[in-house]
Design goal:
The protein starts with 8 loop residues before the first helix and ends in a 6-residue tail after the last helix. The longest helix is centred in the middle third of the chain and has 21 residues. The chain is globular and about 50 Å long. 51% of the residues are buried. The chain has a single domain, classed as Rossmann fold (3-Layer(aba) Sandwich). It is α/β, with parallel strands linked by helices and 263 residues long. The strands form two sheets. Strands 3, 4, 5, 6, 7, 8, 9, 10 and 11 form a nine-stranded mixed β-sheet that branches. Helix 5 runs parallel beside helix 9. It is built from nine helices and eleven strands. This is Phosphatase. InterPro entries: Phosphatase_SCO2771.
Length: 263
């Protein structure tokens, strides 16, 4: 599919299924259930910087939520093999995310964009940051020289991420966002009014009270729990590690729905 024009809803759904961003995704049922179990058991690594409601200590409740909001198979007896993401839920969440972007653009809001998944989602975030800047938002810079998660926080094209050695880091840790927001507060800077991110970058920002749109895979239930708790504004379900160019039509749809590009 060409990414020059934003696809229709049905065209995007077909593309999500074809590229396995949704539908029969690569993440296994075993991996999903293992992560749901760890989150329910209180393993903070899987909370992605959020403070979750006690109801999520019930693994069955987590599975039920992930079926409702992500589209994984609802049957608790399905313990192995294939699992799924419902592309209709992905596009519904993109529409909610677009509404948040549209509000930010209309208000010229302060925005911070970040990723813990630069190998897959960097292009999505780069395009989003550029579109918000072009629409009049203040896309915020981070303080130089911050270190977190055994690396250095930096920005490429207005997107914050972690560099470790010579490699951009895949991280679920909330520590980098904590360092960024703490530095802003120390310097007397206002915090962002909107964060667009994923993983711990998103969870930490939402927990700090910032309106947050976050992307999450079906094995990362915390952001969906945070959305259900009202802490996170939007959690978008998708496979977060397919070939980067596959996300281009999705990004075009998002920005067009937000009124930041022309369909």
């Amino acid at each position: 599919m060409s990414s020059d024009r934003a696809p229709s809803r049905q065209m995007l759904i077909d593309h999500l299924l074809d590229t396995r961003i949704a539908g029969a995704v690569a993440t296994s049922r075993e991996n999903n259930l293992d992560h749901y179990r760890e989150l329910a058991a209180g393993n903070r690594y899987y909370w992605l910087g959020l403070e979750l409601d006690p109801r999520w200590s019930d693994e069955a409740a987590v599975l039920e939520l992930m079926s409702e909001r992500c589209g994984v198979i609802a049957d608790p007896e399905h313990r192995s093999g294939q699992d799924t993401i419902d592309p209709e839920l992905t596009v519904d969440a993109l529409d909610r995310a677009a509404a948040a972007l549209r509000r930010a653009a209309a208000g010229g809001h302060r925005v911070l964009v970040a990723t813990g998944h630069p190998g897959g989602l960097l292009g999505v975030h780069l395009a989003t940051a550029a579109a918000l800047r072009a629409a009049g938002c203040e896309v915020m810079s981070i303080t130089p020289g911050l270190y977190a998660d055994d690396g250095r926080a930096l920005q490429i094209g207005d997107v914050a991420m972690v560099l470790r050695g010579a490699a951009l880091v895949h991280t679920h840790s909330p520590t980098p966002m904590t360092a960024v927001l703490d530095a802003m507060e120390r310097e007397g800077r206002a915090l962002p009014q909107l964060v667009v991110a994923d993983h711990g970058w998103a969870g930490c920002a939402a927990q700090r009270g910032v309106e947050t749109v976050g992307y999450a895979d079906c094995n990362d239930p915390a952001l969906f729990c945070g959305e259900a708790d009202g802490t996170l504004q939007v959690a978008v379900p998708l496979d977060d590690h397919v070939s980067p160019e596959y996300y281009d039509p999705m990004t075009a749809y998002l920005l067009a729905a937000a009124g930041l590009t022309q369909r």
